[in-house]
Write a structure and sequence with these properties.
By secondary structure, this protein is mainly beta. About 0% of the residues lie in helices and about 55% in strands.
């Protein structure tokens, strides 16, 4: 992923409760940076097109990948939960 191709864009990100959320995207990648207000998991409402995606969760302070999931979105829109107990986390979503 080339960070220079990412542009700020919240069009794919719905309501996020319990965190500040910042979103960017390019043609194949979506990035969401979360600053949680609590140690609970954060629910993200995503407006993604129907299709297959890889979700990678990263701890920004430890600079470690927390988990990777392959997710099939059967219709437009999906809700996912962030890992709990992380101070700063970003989600990288890649369209397959």
């Amino acid at each position: 992923m080339d960070l220079g191709t990412l542009k700020p864009d919240h069009s794919f990100l719905g309501h996020v409760e319990g965190a500040f959320a910042y979103a960017m995207k390019d043609k194949k990648n979506y990035i969401v940076y979360l600053e949680p207000l609590t140690s609970d998991a954060i629910k993200l409402n995503l407006e993604l097109k129907k299709g297959n995606y890889t979700f990678e969760w990263w701890d920004i302070y430890k600079k470690e990948k927390i988990k990777t999931e392959n997710i099939k979105i059967p219709s437009k829109g999906a809700s996912v939960l962030s890992p709990a107990g992380i101070k700063g986390v970003f989600l990288k979503i890649k369209s397959l």
